[in-house]
Amino acid sequence: MSRTMRILNAGPMMTVQDGGRRGFLRFGVSGSGPMDRDAFEAANALVGNVPDAAGVEFALIGGRLSLADECLIAVTGGDVPVALNGKPISPWSSWRAPAGSELEIGAMRSGVWGYIAIGGGVTCPPVMGSRSTHLRSGVGGLEGRVLRTGDVLPLGSDTGAEPKKLIKPIRLRGGPISLVPGPQDDHFDEDAFSCLFGREFQVSQQRDRMAMMLDGPEIHAAGGHDIVSDGTLMGSIQVPPSGRLIVLMADRQTTGGFPKIATVASADLGRLVQTPSGKAVRFRAATVEQAEEMVREATEMRRSALENLAPNDPLTG
Amino acid sequence: MISDMLRDARFLNCGDSAICVEFSRDVDERANTVALALASALDAEPPEGMQEALPTYRSVLVAYDPLVTSAREMTAHIRTCLTRIRPSDQLGRRIEIPVYYGGDACLDLDDLVKTKGMDREELIALHMSVEYRVYMIGFAPGFAYLGGLPQQLAMPRKPVPRQLVPAGAIGIGGEQASVNSVAGPSAWHFIGQTPLRLFDPRRSDPFLLDAGDSLWFRRIDEVEFEDLSARVSRGESPDVIRETTV
User: Fold this and answer.
1) CB pair distance less than 8 Å for B20 and A292
2) Would the pLDDT of B186 be above 50?
3) Given CB atoms, is A248 within the 8 Å cutoff of chain B?
4) Would you call A231 and B143 a contact, using CB atoms and an 8 Å cutoff?
5) CATH dotted code for A3-166
6) CB contact under 8 A, A28 and B55
7) Do residue B71 and residue B107 come from a single domain?
8) Which of residues 32-91 of A touch B (CB under 8 A)?
9) 3-state secondary structure of B174
């Protein structure tokens, strides 16, 4: 019999995500993949999966799942209550779930995007080279859509890995989010940049896998708010005529006609997407070279944390 | 001159994992030709660490792995590449798109006829009179932005977008034309619909069009539209004339 996981009660925004889809930007399909790659890779490492194995991403609220066979599970993303067969277990650790287990994940107490990894990964058929759900195109995951109560997901073979826990931080905490000015930095004057790097913004509730809106001071594009559409990235910061910043995310449109004042440094993307709505964010300027150095250091830090997991002994916790 | 365009290419910072090579700030057929040539050259021989090249109207966004390469190395590679490419107008395939100038997606033809002071047949004939070039695919999966719209048909976008325009709708927005791929909101003007699916993930080739292709519209009537639509929804691929010109 094939191994499966059943969704007994789906959270509002659960999707299957793997490392992402590559090669289709020129056809209008963005890469999808996890919103917080650090937390996603941590979940996979904890259950002995390869870093880009498919798992389930959720936003704010988890849900209830049942596991037909014995498997290793881990939940990451933030501080979130998790119970295995009614007994509380800690996130950021992996736990062996006996056959027929029920896993219940509550509401995130910190962070926004959570990850559920299962040893062997979710094995829905890849579409266009990836299992990631791209909601706009309706491809990947389960029928290209958000998971619903009653859905059954196929799972891969148990990796046989032992339960582990994270003992080193996977990334730096706190401090402003670094941005590299451009590509349309020449559409903005000094006032716009002193506002971007001097003032505080709040993460709006208007956010999803396509984009995050930021409340706060309005930014004016002296060079106009219209450009001939060009390519976008996860982390591109668009400035529409309203002056309200839009940070593009994993499921974004591949091209856009608003000028992009800056791009979020990759090393800080995870921290930005995990900022709860209503919370303040501050930005600081970085050069391309500084952002490149940051991503190398961040990768080294994550690697070190994921290569130095400690055994998670259920008795000593 | 194309040689000036190659020499004057601007390299725009896009954070630590991509760089944008811009050939013009405007919609420009030559800039598009150069962008497509650069993207093809990079795809044919990707430098170490390159992940993807996204050609647009007037630029190429090159995404890379910052753990393998850097903006400086990528820029140097692209500069060398620009000295070698031979941009050509003969880029992609030539594809016939059947269009029914009526039905559910013929939302704005009557208004357009009035605004332009043409008669309906004249307007349709004008729309069909030229060969269009796919400048880029963007906005939505498989959505084709077309260049080549006759100037007399240009029409500013609507101030308020329509909430739902059907897949396959044939549009006009400013000086651009489109073949829409999936249903969705739009502020463009729509004058007809093709039964073909520009995007269908069930097909081995999910995308009907690619940037650089040329296409023309063939008028079909309601009967043929219904027939082709039925065949397409059964998963058949009706014959469209495709000629490779390279």
Assistant:
1) no
2) yes
3) no
4) no
5) 2.60.120
6) no
7) no
8) none
9) strand
Mean pLDDT taken over chain A: 96
Model-wide pTM > 0.90: yes
In chain A, where are the structural domains located?
A: 3-166, 177-303
Which amino acid makes up residue A185? D
**Nearest-Cα residue of chain A relative to residue B205:** A128
Mutation test of the interface with chain A: which of B51, B54, B181, B202, choosing the one with the most A Cβ atoms within 10 A?
Answer: B54
- Which residue range is the domain that position B37 belongs to? 2-84
Distance from CA of A277 to the nearest CA of B (A): 24
**Interface predicted TM-score of the whole assembly (ipTM), two decimals:** 0.96
Q: What is the pLDDT of residues B94-131, one digit of tens each?
A: 999 999 999 999 999 999 999 999 999 999 999 999 99
In the sheet that A260-264 helps form, which strands lie side by side, from edge to edge? A280-281, A201-207, A211-215, A246-248, A236-238, A260-264, A177-181, A283-285
Q: Do the Cβ atoms of B55 and A26 come within 8 Å?
A: yes
Instruction: Looking at the complex, report in whole angstroms how far the Cα of residue B25 sits from the nearest Cα belonging to chain A.
Output: 7
What pLDDT is stored for residue A313 in this prediction? 82
Q: For B109-128, give the DSSP string.
A: HHHHHHHHT--HHHHHHHHT
User: Which of 2.40.100.10, 3.30.950.10, 3.40.91.80, 3.20.20.140 is the CATH number of A177-303?
Assistant: 2.40.100.10
Give the pLDDT confidence of B204-236 residue by residue, as tens digits. Answer: 889 999 999 999 999 999 999 999 999 998 877
Q: Return d(Cα B183, Cα A138) in angstroms, integer.
A: 12
Q: How far apart are CA B187 and CA A224, in angstroms?
A: 20
Range name among A25-29, B94-98, B172-176 with the lowest pLDDT average: B172-176
